[in-house]
Amino acid sequence: MDNTQFSDLVNNIQPGIFGALNEKKEELLREGRKVYNLSVGTPDFQPAPHVMKAMEDACKDPENYKYSLADLPELIEAVQYRYQKRFGVELEADEIMSVYGSQEAMAHIGLVFCNPGDTILVPNPGYPMFEMSGIMAHANVEYYTIEEKNGYLPDLDGIPEDVLERTKYMIVSYPLNPVCVCAPDEFYERLIAFAGKHHIVILHDNAYSDIIFTRKQGRSFLSFEGAKEVGVEFYSLSKSYNLTGARISFVVGNREIIRKFRLLRSQIDYGIFYPVQYAAIAAMTGPDDFIEEQREKYAARNRALCGGLRRIGWNVPDSQGTMFVWAKIPEGYESSADFCMKLMEKTGVIVTPGSAFGSGGEGYVRMALVVDEETIREVIGVLDESGIFRKEQN
Ligand SMILES: Cc1ncc(COP(=O)(O)O)c(C=O)c1O
Predict the structure, then answer these.
(1) Does the C-beta of 177 come closer than 6 Å to ligand 1?
(2) Of the residues 238, 298, 323, which should be mutated to test ligand 1's pocket, given the most ligand atoms within 8 Å of the CB?
(3) pLDDT at res. 391
């Protein structure tokens, strides 16, 4: 394929640090070393039995292997039921559509708003798919800075006027992966007023509303007055219900945006596999006590990891939400990637360098709360023995 000219878009996608981390992990495993993988965002919890049963039953019906083409009415009703029960938000049927995961929704939504050269605004650091939503649409990606000293909230008044004039949409997400903070209610009220004033659409990514440690219940962007007039929310079933592989999430909110997005996606897909739709219905309408139990388990892991790390000399703040912990790397390392490689080499503990989330993440690492408390204690022991954080104690 020597003569094949690939697109700039695909040529600019970098395999990044994850490939290098994976190679290193394989090398350690070949050497018979024990590894602790805290880099992946896949829950180790299981889907609820009634959800798996709904999927299993639906899989036995040959009719369910046809193109579904549209969302089942019961699926839409299930989202309405869930949003009312969980967030106190009323949704009309035309304010809801399913997608193959929020990731897929973000991959395509830029095409709804942007012509090549239009501008979008995303956080730095931020979840990589945020910027990709613009790159896929050949848009110009601008970054709003979020810093620890400001609680990782954007300085809305500090965004230059000329950027605001050009911006089609802004992606906002709390609890925010990777920095693990929540936003206060007043922030959303200000955001909605700001979006209305500058005619900027807000896309709110709500992947972690059920994994929050500062209060019992996370909120929906749509529970704030005026939100539906300015934007939509990505509501993912992946983490709340441990359905990451099923690939089903929803875009909910402004009906005009939903109508245009549905039109675009009618050219891309033929609807969600029926058994997945039935599993999602069971998840959203069935018993949900396990969500609170799961949240408490994540909270206990958060306390075990952050408390344990502080005890051995790494001053890591407690996570406020998401299934991750965000920590400043100790002094003496060239970069967060350098620290991650050395940490893995020395201890077998794999964490994600903050630089994977943008330049604003340099100097930090992200650790996933995807192992049980006992394993977390083992990890703390291994890190302590390695002496890697001892100098901070002195
Ligand atoms: C912030 C954020 N948004 C979206 C997703 C992807 O969600 P989905 O599985 O619905 O595509 C993730 C997954 O890790 C995430 O962390």
Answers:
(1) yes
(2) 238
(3) 59
Q: What is the structure's pLDDT at 393?
A: 44
> What pLDDT score was predicted for residue 392?
46
The verdict on residue 393 lying in a domain is no
Distance CA 387, CA 32 (A): 22
Structure tokens at 182: 């929540």
Among 264, 285, 306, which residue terminates a domain?
A: 285
Reported as a single tens digit per residue, the pLDDT across 111-136 is: 999 999 899 999 999 999 999 999 99
pLDDT of 343 above 80: yes
Between the CA atoms of 290, 295, 297 and 302, what dihedral angle is there, to the nearest 10 degrees? 170
Of 285, 318, 344, the residue at which a domain comes to its end is: 285
pLDDT surpassing 80 at residue 160: yes
Encoding tokens for residue 216? 């019992």
- Phi then psi dihedrals of residue 348, to 5 deg: 80, 5
Taking only the tens place, the pLDDT of each residue in 6-21 is 999 999 887 767 777 8
User: CA–CA separation, 137 vs 266, rounded Å?
Assistant: 17
Q: Are 108 and 129 in contact (CB under 8 A)?
A: no
Per the document, the length of the chain is 394
- Which parts of the chain fold into alpha helices (H)? 8-11, 16-30, 49-59, 73-82, 102-113, 128-135, 161-166, 185-198, 227-230, 255-265, 274-285, 289-311, 336-347, 373-386, 390-393
Instruction: Give the pLDDT mean for 26-51.
Output: 94
Q: Give the per-residue pLDDT at 255.
A: 98
Q: Whose CA is nearest to atom 13 of ligand 1?
A: 41
Residue range(s) defining the domain that contains residue 38: 14-46+289-388
Is residue 39 located within the same domain as residue 54? Answer: no
Gap between the Cα atoms of 193 and 186, Å rounded: 11
Measure the CA–CA gap between 110 and 46, rounded to whole angstroms.
Answer: 33
pLDDT higher than 90, residue 208: yes
242 and 176 within one domain? yes
Distance separating alpha carbons of residues 270 and 93, to the nearest angstrom: 19
Residue 23's pLDDT is what?
86
Q: 243, 277 in Cβ contact below 8 A?
A: no
Q: Does ligand 1 lie within 6 Å of residue 192's CB atom? A: no
